[in-house]
Amino acid sequence: MRVLVSMDKLKGTATAAEACAAVSRGLRRAEPGLDVRELPMADGGDGTLDALLHGGYDHDTLVVPAADGRPESARVARRDGTYLVEIAEICGLGGARPTAGMAERADSSGVGDAIRHALDAGAGEIQVGLGGSATSDGGAGMLRRLGARFLDRAGQPLAAGGSALAELAELDWSGLDPRLASIRLLGLCDVDSPLLGASGAAEVFGPQKGADPAAVHRIEAGLSRFAQVVARTPPPAGFADPNAAGAGAAGGLGWGLRLLGAELAGGGERIADALGLDAATSGADLVITGEGRLDRQSLAGKTPAVVAGVARHHRVPVAAVVGQDRLGEEAARLGLVRVVALERIAGPTVGDRDRTIRALEQAGTLLAATVAQAQRDAPAR
Questions:
Q1: Which of 23, 145, 228, 357 is the most buried (most CB within 10 A)?
Q2: Collapsing DSSP states into helix, strand and coil, what is residue 265?
């Protein structure tokens, strides 16, 4: 009996690799003879870099400015001329307690440095995992590091951060790195938020980054001004619609990438292809996936939906292990034959790594019955 365990991270408590290993231990404890394969998965957000490195990618380590401007070490994944820059690795919140001031000043310059590093290394394709950012500057910091100039009415460079963009008077694209036009640039995102408005970068995600209502208003004003000036002075790649799906990803970095000519795509499918999920699933009798929280967002582009879709294509049953289940009976829309929620078997696990790992092992043991059922049903497939 062959089982594929392909989990995403449980944010803040277990990486994808740790989650897969814990569930696998639980399965083997109940059924020692099982052939269990682990394939940690991600959807383009935070945790994508670790999943790719676990899957055989190499990496470079470089020093870049963090969201607060301080230098920090960050990794960039690479394989066969394709580079992956993870936003959360470079300008994420990390362990910091966010404040309104941080939210307004947070800067994406480090992303530009990482892209420039990949260009210097001869990259043919650069993928940017959009998720887990501390920034809300529309990618302005990234664009600066790649050669764009942001000037106020006095012709002076703007300060960093989303709020400062309200003073933007002029954009100068003449110094933009010409190598960007000769490579493929891809933004991997798992949200469809626009840049502006009630469902945009500031309103929806600003509070998660420490912004209070007044800070959200100032950031929104800055991003709106940025979009107005871009409409008047578009970049070489052409104007990018700030209302397009994904433009608001990672504090507007999705839109910033579009200004460089990037394509925005669902991260889950791309990462699944890169890690060989299709081939791994085709040889399995049961697939187990999961993430921290199963909810309506999981139905479109998140790891459980991607893994379940591939399993459905191969007519392989799929179960899920999640920290919290907010879908209930709607989980059937994903084709899940069973959902085990850690909160139901071990209580709240958020922020408690040891408790999470133990609960994941227990979930694996509980799923042994699903394995047995899949084995009985296997001839029907």
A1: 23
A2: strand
Model confidence pLDDT, tens digit, residues 141-169: 999 999 999 999 999 999 999 999 999 99
Cα–Cα distance for residue pair 20/54, rounded to 1 Å:
12
Residues 213, 103 share a domain: yes
CA–CA gap between residue 201 and residue 192 (Å, rounded) = 10
Q: What is the pLDDT of residues 320-342, one digit of tens each?
A: 999 999 988 888 888 899 999 99
Return the SS3 of 330.
helix
Nearest one of 226, 278, 228 to 256, comparing CA atoms: 226
How are beta strands 149-151 and 125-130 bridged, if at all? unpaired
Contacts (Cβ under 8 Å, ≥6 apart) of 323: 10, 13, 291, 292, 293, 341, 342, 343, 349, 350, 356
First-residue to last-residue Cα distance in the chain: 14
Last residue of a domain, one of 267, 292, 323: 267
Helix (H) or strand (E) holding 51: helix 48-54
Work out the pLDDT band at 374, boundaries 50, 70, 90: low
Radius of gyration of the chain (CA): 22
**Domain containing residue 239:** 48-267
* Overall number of domains in the chain: 2
The predicted model scores a pTM of 0.91
Q: Are 34 and 257 in contact (CB under 8 A)?
A: no
Q: Give Cα 314 distance to the centre of its chain.
A: 26
Alpha carbons 131 and 302: distance in angstroms, whole number: 12
Pair (321, 344) in one structural domain: yes
Name the residue among 57, 47, 59, 60 with its Cα closest to residue 18. Answer: 47
326 & 220 share domain: no
Q: Give CA–CA dist 147/171, Å, rounded.
A: 11
Q: What is the pLDDT of residue 329?
A: 85
